[in-house]
Amino acid sequence: MTQVYGRVALIGLGLIASSMCHAMRRAGLAGEIVGYARSEETRDIAREIKLCDRVCDSAAEAVEGADLVVLCVPVGAMGAVAAEIGPVLKPGATVSDVGSVKRTVIDAVAPHIPAGVHFIPAHPLAGTEHSGPRSGFAELFDNRFCIIVPVEGSDRAAVDRVADLWRGIGSNVDEMDPDHHDLVLAVTSHTPHLIAYTMVGVADDLSRVTDSEVIKYSAAGFRDFTRIAASDPTMWRDVFLNNKEATLEILGRFTEELFALQRAIRQGDGDHLFDYFTHTRAIRRSIIEAGQDTDAPDFGRSAVKSK
Ligand SMILES: NC(=O)c1ccc[n+]([C@@H]2O[C@H](COP(=O)([O-])OP(=O)(O)OC[C@H]3O[C@@H](n4cnc5c(N)ncnc54)[C@H](O)[C@@H]3O)[C@@H](O)[C@H]2O)c1
Ligand SMILES: O=C(O)C(=O)C[C@]1(C(=O)O)C=C[C@@H](O)C=C1
């Protein structure tokens, strides 16, 4: 793989930035990787594990001379970081981000990007419940999507170059408009996380079932909920505060469906339950058929094909 950028600066050295470091190194996509994180502890760890070629003590120092700057901080912190680095960005450089929400990030960051610097927002659809500089791994983005969200007047060549980087990192690339991105992610990621947080909270609250019973008898479904509900609280607080409208819309629809299922259970309406579950099973099967679930065991795929 050939180099896509000379110097890449990563601001925030958590799961996503550290995975980008490993993946860029794996494919030789950057001449030099420079990093900055707000906490001294994170910077020390990054230096100790040699995550980047250089770790700087300020964001401004890290972006100096960088061809690509990627903001990898919680979405609520993007605007403040952009304000700090805006005045020292190299003319012709590109600023991108990896935030899970796009509209508010664009509104907060764009005003700080000087003329002559490109701003190309992006969102890799890959993650784990872990965070921090030690949690990253090169394969995180392999065969996942990275959605690029060009802003008005985005330079085509700059967009294509960011797309080349993400392809080099292992991802498939799509483009979307910011509001549509936020609605899609409210359905596929944000509301499901809220439901997982709630379910784990409910289990914890139920005094007739002890915590040790929940741990001991967790079947696969609940185990997945606890994994998701272990995700970083700062990141997810910021996601919900910044994707308020879309999340509330999807949550409203979710509540309506839940009430209908609740009524069907109370009234013993087996047909309603059966039809509903048949429909949702078809959705799962179409995801597997489209090859979108790389974690699904092979027997799942062949079982679908054989029907
Ligand atoms: N974790 C995921 O599953 C996932 C997936 C895709 C995108 N994202 C997005 O990527 C971004 C980073 O997430 P992550 O999982 O790598 O988080 P993380 O918690 O692992 O890392 C965040 C980093 O940002 C730093 N930071 C926090 N506040 C800061 C501030 N005000 N100024 C400077 N640095 C600050 C932290 O010190 C840390 O180094 C978020 O915007 C998140 O929405 C996360
Ligand atoms: O697999 C996980 O742990 C994730 O939650 C990753 C996940 C998702 O919902 O799919 C979470 C947030 C993102 O912005 C992108 C990906």
UniProtKB/TrEMBL annotation:
Principal EC category: oxidoreductase
Catalytic activity from the UniProt record: prephenate + NAD(+) = 3-(4-hydroxyphenyl)pyruvate + CO2 + NADH
Pathway info: Amino-acid biosynthesis; L-tyrosine biosynthesis; (4-hydroxyphenyl)pyruvate from prephenate (NAD(+) route): step 1/1
GO biological process, one term: tyrosine biosynthetic process
Highest taxon listed in the record's lineage: Bacteria
Molecular function as annotated in GO: NAD+ binding; prephenate dehydrogenase (NAD+) activity; prephenate dehydrogenase (NADP+) activity
InterPro entries documented for this protein: 6-PGluconate_DH-like_C_sf, NAD(P)-bd_dom_sf, PDH_C, PDH_N, Preph/Arog_dehydrog, Prephen_DH
Catalytic activity, EC: 1.3.1.12
Keyword NAD listed: yes
Gene3D superfamilies: 6-phosphogluconate dehydrogenase C-terminal like domain, NAD(P)-binding Rossmann-like Domain
Keywords (A to Z) from UniProt: Amino-acid biosynthesis, Aromatic amino acid biosynthesis, NAD, Oxidoreductase, Tyrosine biosynthesis
Domain Prephenate/arogenate dehydrogenase: 6-295
Membership in a protein family: Belongs to the prephenate/arogenate dehydrogenase family.
Name this polypeptide is given: prephenate dehydrogenase
Organism: Yoonia maritima
